[in-house]
Write a structure and sequence with these properties.
InterPro entries: Nucleotide-bd_a/b_plait_sf, RBD_domain_sf, RRM2_NsCP33-like, RRM_dom, SLIRP/GR-RBP-like. Helix content is 21%, strand content 32%. It is α+β, with helices and mostly antiparallel strands and 94 residues long. β4 and β5 form a beta hairpin.
Length: 94
Protein backbone atom coordinates (compact mmCIF):
# COMPACT_ATOMS: atom_id res chain seq x y z
CA UNK A 1 0.00 0.00 0.00
CA UNK A 2 1.40 3.38 -1.02
CA UNK A 3 0.96 6.41 1.23
CA UNK A 4 1.11 10.10 0.39
CA UNK A 5 2.95 12.15 3.04
CA UNK A 6 2.57 15.92 2.83
CA UNK A 7 3.69 19.01 4.73
CA UNK A 8 7.20 17.61 5.22
CA UNK A 9 10.08 19.71 6.47
CA UNK A 10 12.25 20.77 3.51
CA UNK A 11 15.32 19.43 5.35
CA UNK A 12 13.91 15.90 5.67
CA UNK A 13 15.72 13.18 3.70
CA UNK A 14 14.48 9.87 2.26
CA UNK A 15 16.20 8.10 5.18
CA UNK A 16 14.43 10.37 7.72
CA UNK A 17 11.10 9.64 6.06
CA UNK A 18 11.72 5.90 6.13
CA UNK A 19 12.77 6.04 9.79
CA UNK A 20 9.58 7.91 10.75
CA UNK A 21 7.43 5.14 9.24
CA UNK A 22 9.59 2.09 10.06
CA UNK A 23 8.11 1.89 13.58
CA UNK A 24 4.84 0.68 11.99
CA UNK A 25 6.28 -2.12 9.87
CA UNK A 26 8.45 -3.04 6.90
CA UNK A 27 8.81 -0.04 4.58
CA UNK A 28 9.36 -1.11 0.95
CA UNK A 29 10.31 2.38 -0.20
CA UNK A 30 10.36 5.98 1.01
CA UNK A 31 10.91 8.82 -1.45
CA UNK A 32 10.73 12.58 -1.05
CA UNK A 33 9.78 14.33 -4.28
CA UNK A 34 12.27 16.99 -5.39
CA UNK A 35 12.21 19.76 -7.95
CA UNK A 36 14.08 18.69 -11.09
CA UNK A 37 15.84 22.01 -11.59
CA UNK A 38 16.84 22.91 -8.02
CA UNK A 39 16.90 19.39 -6.50
CA UNK A 40 15.12 20.86 -3.42
CA UNK A 41 12.32 19.03 -1.65
CA UNK A 42 8.78 19.88 -2.74
CA UNK A 43 7.58 19.14 0.80
CA UNK A 44 5.88 15.84 0.09
CA UNK A 45 6.74 12.24 -0.60
CA UNK A 46 5.55 8.65 -0.73
CA UNK A 47 6.05 5.69 1.58
CA UNK A 48 5.21 2.15 0.52
CA UNK A 49 4.37 -0.74 2.83
CA UNK A 50 3.93 -4.36 1.76
CA UNK A 51 1.38 -4.95 4.53
CA UNK A 52 -1.89 -2.97 4.35
CA UNK A 53 -2.54 -3.21 8.12
CA UNK A 54 0.86 -1.66 8.87
CA UNK A 55 0.19 1.15 6.39
CA UNK A 56 -3.21 1.85 7.94
CA UNK A 57 -1.62 1.93 11.42
CA UNK A 58 0.90 4.49 10.14
CA UNK A 59 -1.90 6.67 8.71
CA UNK A 60 -3.83 6.47 11.99
CA UNK A 61 -0.79 7.38 14.10
CA UNK A 62 1.04 9.93 11.94
CA UNK A 63 -1.69 11.92 10.18
CA UNK A 64 -1.73 15.30 11.93
CA UNK A 65 1.30 14.44 14.10
CA UNK A 66 4.01 17.06 14.34
CA UNK A 67 7.37 15.96 12.91
CA UNK A 68 10.23 18.47 12.62
CA UNK A 69 7.83 21.28 13.56
CA UNK A 70 5.22 20.47 10.89
CA UNK A 71 1.91 18.61 11.15
CA UNK A 72 2.09 15.74 8.64
CA UNK A 73 -0.69 14.92 6.20
CA UNK A 74 -0.73 11.15 5.67
CA UNK A 75 -3.25 9.24 3.57
CA UNK A 76 -3.50 6.54 0.95
CA UNK A 77 -1.88 7.70 -2.29
CA UNK A 78 -4.16 8.17 -5.28
CA UNK A 79 -3.10 6.86 -8.68
CA UNK A 80 -1.27 9.49 -10.73
CA UNK A 81 -3.30 11.52 -13.21
CA UNK A 82 -2.51 10.78 -16.86
CA UNK A 83 -0.08 13.29 -18.29
CA UNK A 84 -0.93 15.27 -21.38
CA UNK A 85 1.29 15.19 -24.45
CA UNK A 86 3.27 18.30 -23.55
CA UNK A 87 3.13 21.78 -25.01
CA UNK A 88 0.99 22.33 -28.06
CA UNK A 89 0.85 25.47 -30.13
CA UNK A 90 -2.42 24.41 -31.79
CA UNK A 91 -0.91 23.89 -35.26
CA UNK A 92 -0.42 20.14 -35.11
CA UNK A 93 2.59 18.24 -36.31
CA UNK A 94 3.66 17.64 -39.88
Amino acid sequence: MKLYVGNLSYQMTDADLEAAFAAFGAVSSAKIITDRETNRSKGFGFVEFENRAEAEAAIESLNGKEVSGRALVVNEARPPKPRTGGHSNGRGRF
